[in-house]
Design goal:
By secondary structure, the protein is α/β, with parallel strands linked by helices. The protein folds into two domains: 3-82 and 210-272, HAD superfamily/HAD-like (Rossmann fold, 3-Layer(aba) Sandwich); 94-206, HAD superfamily/HAD-like (Rossmann fold), CATH 3.40.50. The chain has nine helices and 16 strands. The chain has helices at residues 7-13, 35-45, 60-69, 86-92, 106-114, 141-156, 182-194, 213-223, 235-244, and strands at 3-5, 16-19, 26-27, 30-31, 49-53, 79-81, 99-103, 118-120, 128-131, 161-164, 170-174, 177-180, 205-207, 228-232, 248-252, 270-272. The strands form four sheets. The chain has a seven-stranded parallel sheet with strand order 1-16-15-14-2-5-6, with helices on both faces. It has a five-stranded parallel sheet with strand order 8-7-9-10-13, with helices on both faces. Strands 3-4 form a two-stranded antiparallel sheet. The two termini are 20 Å apart. The structure holds magnesium ion. Magnesium ion (MG) is lined by residues 20, 22-24, 232-234, 255-256. Magnesium ion binds at residues 20, 22-24, 232-234, 255-256.
């Protein structure tokens, strides 16, 4: 289950750090114990770091402001959200200029616009659907309208591109409470689309964010070294993604994840009881 260690030893050992936000730096109660001190220590030592977070509901500058309100000084330039990966994804798949339906709050639409997409209202013809967040739209009315538009495209044989910046399925909404997240909405839409295709393969969502490689590679680009440690609280996203990219990973206990036993041989490099 990973070698137990202390944060001070890891700060000494690595040249750069990737920090998960939820469950590591913050939780529903605010900044987590040791988070502020860790950021201050990294700054004092001049060790580059950035936050790698699955989410497309807030622009990096909005996330930075929110964390600033919790007492964490995190410049927007140090925030890599999975929403910000939409730009690279749109470029790689030539999606710029196409009509895009977006499920999420206003910042989600801004991510899509920054990526070059033309945001349309639910029900209008859309070549791209971005399921960015579980909030900010009418459930199920907006999904129904988008499904109708997608079915019309599929009937005509027109391509449909589905993107899921945050593949998380559930999220803690309050202490001891869980709610469904964008990934769960995408599962529902895939199931609905498969129901009317009469045996043809349904389009599938392309997931961005952890554990996919793109967010870690963007992190490496920002910190300028691969001798970097990912500190996260989820095996399936933080640990799996970092190890797959050849990076070391520390798993913090006491975050949002329940304690897992190792599965698929997935073992973090390090185990931390806390950031203190
Ligand atoms: Mg987390």
């Amino acid at each position: 289950m990973g070698r137990p260690t202390q944060i001070a030893a890891l700060v000494e050992r690595y040249d750069a750090f990737f920090l998960d936000a939820y469950g590591v730096l913050v939780d529903v109660a605010g900044a987590r114990p040791g988070a502020r001190e860790l950021l201050a220590e990294l700054e004092r030592r001049g060790k580059p770091w950035c936050v790698l977070t699955n989410g497309a509901s807030r622009l990096p500058e909005a996330a930075a402001r929110r964390w600033g309100g919790l007492g964490l000084e995190i410049p927007a330039a140090r925030v890599v959200t999975s929403g910000s990966l939409l730009a690279g994804h749109f470029a790689a798949h030539a999606l710029a200029g196409l009509p895009c339906a977006v499920l999420g709050p206003p910042d989600s639409a801004r991510y899509v616009e920054r990526a070059g997409g033309v945001v349309v209202r639910p029900g209008e013809d859309c070549a791209v659907l971005v399921v960015a967040d579980e909030t900010g739209f009418a459930f199920p009315q907006d999904i129904d309208a988008i499904l109708t538009a997608l079915f019309a495209r599929l009937e005509r044989g027109d391509p449909v591109h589905l993107v899921l910046p945050n593949p998380d399925l559930v999220y803690p909404t309050a202490p001891g409470a869980l709610g469904l997240t964008a990934g769960a909405i995408a599962v529902m839409i895939e199931a609905a689309l498969s129901a009317r295709l009469h045996g043809r393969a349904p389009p599938r969502f392309v997931a961005l964010g952890k554990p996919q490689a793109a967010i870690f590679e963007e992190g490496v680009r920002r910190v300028g070294t691969r001798n970097a440690l990912m500190i996260g609280d989820q095996l399936e996203t933080d640990t799996r993604g970092a190890l797959a990219c050849g990076l070391d990973a520390a798993l913090v206990s006491g975050g949002v994840s329940v304690e897992h036993s190792a599965h698929d041989g997935l073992i973090p490099t390090w185990r931390l009881a806390s950031l203190l």
